[in-house]
TrEMBL record:
Record's keyword terms, sorted: Coiled coil
Record's protein name: FCH and mu domain containing endocytic adaptor 1
Gene designation per UniProt: FCHO1
PANTHER family from the UniProt entry: F-BAR DOMAIN ONLY PROTEIN 1, PROLINE-SERINE-THREONINE PHOSPHATASE INTERACTING PROTEIN 1
Pfam families for the chain: FCH
Length: 155
């Protein structure tokens, strides 16, 4: 048997259940990631608008005088920064679309996988049920053996 086959089932034979739970958790994780990216895009968009507003304020500065070159530097840098963050917002929105598409594909794959492994899932659940009953059955057997021994001594 391969290394994977020997170790997949894991401690107490919960490997399949861990894997199945991870697959079930996938859509929730994907949604959380999309929500996080969406929030980040909103923040970047807000920052871009604020920098554009600062750029406008800098362009209203006095074109003459000691600070004229400084106002131009502020305007240009604010403009560039606003554009950078706006571009980041667009890329994050594209990323959200990709993550949501991935989530849809993940759901389809999960449904297909669920249909294919339903027999394994049933077998694992039966095995788990038997594993839980085994210690109780063993205890009952040992108690009956002790009762039988006690009755043998009394007779």
């Amino acid at each position: 048997m391969s290394y994977f086959g020997e170790h997949f089932w894991g401690e107490k034979n919960h490997g399949f259940e861990v894997l199945y739970h991870s697959v079930k958790q996938g859509p929730i994780s994907t949604k959380e990631l999309a929500d996080f990216i969406r929030e980040r895009a909103t923040i970047e968009e807000t920052y871009s608008k604020a920098m554009a507003k600062l750029s406008k304020l800098a362009s209203n500065g006095t074109p003459m005088g000691t600070f004229a070159p400084l106002w131009e530097v502020f305007r240009v840098s604010s403009d560039k920064l606003a554009l950078c963050h706006l571009e980041l917002t667009r890329k994050l929105q594209d990323l959200i679309k990709d993550v949501l598409r991935y989530g849809e594909e993940q759901l389809k794959t999960h449904k297909k996988c669920k249909e294919e492994v339903v027999s394994t899932l049933d077998a694992v659940q039966v095995l788990s049920g038997v594993s839980q009953l085994l210690p109780k059955s063993r205890e009952n057997y040992l108690n009956r053996c002790m009762d039988q021994e006690r009755l043998r001594r009394e007779s």
